[in-house]
Amino acid sequence: MPHLKSAKYIRQWVDGLHLSQSAETEAFPFEQCLAALNGVGVQTDYDLVIRTDVLPETPPFLHRYIKAIRMVVLEHFTSGGQSALDVLDSTSENTGYVDRSPVFIKSGISCLDDLLCGGLRVGQVTELCGKSGSGKTQLAIRFAVSHLVSTNAQSSDSKVYFLQTSTLPIWRVEELLRAELGDSGAANNNTSLQRAMERLIVVDCHTHESLLEFLYKYAAETAYSRRNDESTLSTDLMIIDSIRPLIINASDTYNNRYVLIHAIKTALRSICAGTQNLRSVAIFITNGISQRA
């Protein structure tokens, strides 16, 4: 999650205010607002959304300014929606072309890929729900291994990001990788295994804050590489295993799960929207289900 001071959309809004202000107009006390909010533990835009008790704890003369900043954050997390034509036009303007040929990350299991109409579609989110112990994590590992050993991934800077809320059985990943590399006839199995494991990035996301922080950072890095690195074509796979416990834990603390769900959705949407050109990603999410008595 970006700090309020470094959040790009907030900085653009503040800069716009300063440009539109005349010499007689009172300057917007942005730095004073940041200091007051930081003093009560509000450091990120997400903090400002979920904390509804900050005004009584901040100086009264800053209240209207803090309210204005909060409205900017709320508008950022809220989307009124777009028509399909608007989305198409926006994609064309941002990338210079509209890619109508879908790209998929395959599991290596032909019948499963057929059921998914090709595999995990790049630029989209695929969610798998099931009971505990039904094999969701194992299927996620299957997709990860298949992508790591694919020809396209090995010849580029493609990576697999495994965002874990519980411990990933890394031994299982190594076991499947050795089997896949052996079947593919890799000349140097150990070297290929090492390279594959180096492109598997395991991220601990035991809290919703750590998950959002990673998603925001990835979205920013993807946008940067898309603008500045025209020599590298890569397709990443991002696996989130799983979001449900983070939302449950956050609900126990803040009693506002809908804000958190919307924040995660906004971050994922930003990542997918930024993967129309050189760096692309498919997102695979596993989630548990519960039965009510």
Provide structural commentary.
The protein is α/β, with parallel strands linked by helices and 293 residues long. Helices cover 52% and strands 13% of the residues.
Number of strands: 7
Strand order of the largest sheet: 3-7-6-4-5
**What helical percentage do the residues reach?**
40-55%
Q: What's the main sheet like?
A: 5 strands, parallel
pLDDT < 50 stretches: 94-98
| Rg over CA atoms | 22 Å
Distance between the termini: 37 Å
C-alpha geometry: elongated
What's the order of the H and E elements?
HHHHHEHEEHHEHHEHEHHE
Annotation keywords:
293 residues, two-stranded antiparallel sheet, 13 helices, alpha/beta, elongated, 52% helix
Summarize the structure.
With 293 residues, the chain is an alpha/beta fold. The protein has helices at residues 8-20, 30-39, 45-50, 63-77, 84-95, 110-115, 136-149, 151-154, 170-183, 189-198, 208-228, 244-254, 257-273; strands spanning 104-105, 120-121, 125-130, 160-164, 200-204, 234-241, 279-288.
Q: What topology emerges from the helices and strands here?
A:
Layout: H1 8-20, H2 30-39, H3 45-50, H4 63-77, H5 84-95, E1 104-105, H6 110-115, E2 120-121, E3 125-130, H7 136-149, H8 151-154, E4 160-164, H9 170-183, H10 189-198, E5 200-204, H11 208-228, E6 234-241, H12 244-254, H13 257-273, E7 279-288
Parallel strand pairs: 3-7, 4-5, 4-6, 6-7
Antiparallel strand pairs: 1-2
Helix pairs in contact: 7-9, 9-10, 11-13
